[in-house]
Amino acid sequence: DVNAELERMRERNSRLTNVERAAKNGDTALIDFEGFKDGVAFEGGKGENFPLNLGSGQFIPGFEEQVVGHKAGDEFELNITFPEDYHAEDLKGQPVVFKVKVNAVQEKELPALDDEFAKDVSEFDTLDELKADIRARLMERAEAKCEEDYENGLVSAVLENTVIDLPQCMIDTRIDEMVQDFDYRLRSQGLDLNTYFQYTGETLPA
Question: What is the pLDDT of residue 75?
Fold first, then answer.
């Protein structure tokens, strides 16, 4: 768990750097694109310098896969068929063509897991101190959850074996509160209980 938290911290403090190679899954491609259906550009199908995280499933199926393998400066066309459950009625299941230009390919750089990283992301001077703090916080949360689960289990066990007879006066009081609340909501709409019962043919039980 400590290692997983450290990896999340590295992800949050990562940076993107331009690379000259072809794009691969995990990279970010900065692209210009425009979509055409039957040779006509369709609404919402255009973007400029859009950061597309390859492999993330941001775009419709088939789009990201066809950007993989291209490098900065490449211009090409993608043949895509929109899925049948796409939200735009006029594009559901329709074949389209996207004109795409790759402006840059960027890869994620994770910071080294060392004392400098600890200084940058926390108030601690060493990685060991940061790890100890993470471990302590995780233990505190885990112990609190164990205690909460234990208490909830006790309450559930008691409720399963308990029968409570509510006094009639409590039931009557709650009914009165519900009736008054309903009457208030009716009055806010220009009605009252008597008018409501006339419309519905119902009566208020004694």
Answer: 97
Cα radius of gyration rounded to whole Å, the chain: 31
Separation of alpha carbons 57 and 163, rounded Å? 53
**CA-wise closest residue to 111 among 102, 123, 103, 120:** 120
Q: How buried is 94 (Cβ within 10 angstroms: 0-12 exposed, 13-18 middle, 19+ buried)?
A: middle
Q: How many CA atoms lie within 13 A of 90 on its CB side?
A: 9
Q: What is the Cβ-side half-sphere exposure of residue 187, based on CA atoms within 13 angstroms? A: 7
Q: Cα dist. 105→66, 108, 133 in Å?
A: 14, 10, 37
71 exposure class (CB count in 10 Å sphere: 0-12, 13-18, 19+): middle
End-to-end CA distance of the chain: 62
Determine the distance from the C-alpha atom of residue 151 to the mean position of all C-alpha atoms in its chain, rounded to a whole number.
31
Which stretch of DSSP H or E encloses residue 100? strand 95-109
User: Could you state, in chain order, the average pLDDT of each consecutive group of 10 residues for the chain (206 residues)?
Assistant: 94 92 95 94 92 90 94 95 88 93 95 94 94 95 94 90 84 89 85 77 70
